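note to self — DONT lose this again. spent like an hour looking for the file last time. sequence + predicted structure for the chain T wanted, 215 res
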Amino acid sequence: MAKPIARKGKKQVSGGSKGTVSAQRKSAKKVVRKQIARKQPAKKAVGRESGNKRPKTGGPVDHGLVTAFHHMQRASVVMSLMQKGTGEDLHELLQRGVGLYRRAILRNAQQQLVLRAIGVLRAAEHLSMAGLYAAREKHSQKVASPPPHWLENVIAETGHRLAKIEHEGRGKGPDLFAVTVQLLRQAVESDYDAHLAFEFAMAADALCFALEHGL
């Protein structure tokens, strides 16, 4: 009789230990769940705090403004290398582009203003390069230019685009249509070399772009 009782006792003890382990595991799981539940609100709070540090617009950085900004800075740096007392018209063009850029920022990157700023500032950059190149012509490399077919196509296409918008309404400020036409003429003049032709054509293309968007 003693043996069966002993076996039964072992089973009881064994079963009791399993029950204790199972209870401990359940208790541990509850603790882990509570810890996870506590951590989740903390993560949300961090997200809200970081959200407050974003720009007021709340959206992604406007790539148009980035493009306009870089054209503006490059034009400014190149113009700083030009001789003093030169490039007054170019300086006025740059300031007009800067004004458009500032208005675009104040109006939460309004697309039309951004596109106008890009066109004017890109034109200022190319014209500043043309001015610097003309002033430092003696340092240019005396080598043959590549075939001008691509540039000829750009000039022709820009001419067609200008013809389409010649009689359309313009925005406030000095009308740059005549300036754009003149730049296009300078690009095809045989007196200018390939590099100047490129800079004038690109400036005309940029101003045409700005005019197409209501400048």
